[in-house]
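Hi F.,

I've been meaning to write this up properly since the lab meeting, where we talked about keeping a consistent format for the predictions we share between groups. The idea is simple: the sequence comes first, exactly as it goes in, then the structure tokens exactly as they come out, then a line or two of notes. No screenshots and no reformatting. I'm using this chain as the first example so we have something concrete to point to.
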Amino acid sequence: MADDRPVLYVVGGGLSGIACAEFLSRGGGRPRKVVLLEARPRLGGRTSSYRESHDGLTHDTGQHLFMDGYVSTRALLRTLGTEDQLSFLDPLSLYLMDRKGKLSFLELPLHNGQMGLLSGIMKFPGLSLLSRLSMLRIGRALPDRESSVDHLDARTFLRNNGQTSEAIDKFWELLIVSATNLPSDRVSAALLVTVLKESLFSASGPKTLGYNTVPLASLIAEPAVRLLSKRGVDIRCQTPVSRLKIERNRISGMLAGKEAVAMGPEDHVIMAVPPWSFEDLFPMERINDPLIQNVERLSRPSPIVSVHLWFRDPVAAPMITGFSESPMHWVFNRDLMMGRALPAVPRERTLVDFSYSSPNSEFYPARMLSCVSSGAEELLEEGDDTLMEMAVSTVQRLAPGGSKKKLSFARVIRERYATPVFPPGQGVWRPQPQSFLSNLWVAGDMGDTGLPATMEAAVRSGFRAASEVEIRLERRTIEERTSGPRARGEGVR
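Output, unedited:
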């Protein structure tokens, strides 16, 4: 028997596509079919993991951080059954090192509202008193409408609102490049305002950071396949969509893999692809449409470079350390984050107790550390040896004893297409879910969520697009019911 149910095609199996498919597949018995098309061999998109030949373990290509304010992402993980595999810092605590090698500890209590932020910043030894006071003032400078500062870059916004050069260079720049994957003078101030409102200056107090304690594939992609398959979603990996056929203001067909797919009158397509893949799907006669032109303006990617280091003997390091005015922005203690306990660094080698038995110890032994550079356009073409030396040098700044440890292996990972670029003015370019075609919808981290291109932006956009498709389908169902024979006063044979 032919399956004449409406088909909802979700193109792109990254976070946004997974969120779309999850939303559309909720509730059994709905008279529709969901098909998830992904060009890669597996789901996950840019949140990916790989199996490392050096140690035989699965590692993420790069380190991702979560915020406890990521309400959509946490909701998705809750549905997938993996939210408990996130770990959040309580209190929010980070080590930060400046270019002169001064290591400072920032701790923000989470249970005292804005008083926790006030006390944490005022106690932070990494900045002068003047700079700390200027940081507290920024909360009052945040506009009600983020769009009112979209024409400014983030650095100009900070300068216009009393931030000292020291505060910008030693603190804000690191926060901005990490949150937006762009330097402060190239990214829209509107994104900074949104980030601050949802993190440090949240109405309920500062939000903390979290991290995944299992590889991203185990956190997202694998449980997504299990859940969506159980719900009857047709998942087709290694099936790139290469061309759309457009007739009478709607998509009438597409090429998916090697198959020409004919679209029924009630079928819909949700595009959850990055902006650099968007234009190529449309026929030449449609590329001057404003939607496609706007997406094209967002299609320049900003890269991330990660260098995973393995040492023969343990190196003592905090869980997370940020580096201001440095080409490498973060060092992550991967063994600690993944729960791989190691023997303590011998006491005679250091004046600090690195054993796990000491609750006050903030440095822990690790054989694997990861160094990450965001917005790494200048590093992208550097050779592997240069990047490895840069990463080892960063670790040596943090743990001078680490200079005596022998590096046993290193893996350099260049994510050339990590995130879209959102410069000043981006607010008028980022697309809404509804497109210029009646059955085409747009999702992905490029969508107009007001957020940078984060995991939360991708999931929010996916949920939002799926929700609007549902509204359209429900409206159509109501129209069909009310326009039936009885509604028109006709007899029923």
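Notes:
Residues 347-360, 488-493 have pLDDT under 50 and may be disordered.
The chain is about 30% helix and 25% strand.

If this format works for you, I'll send the rest the same way.

G.
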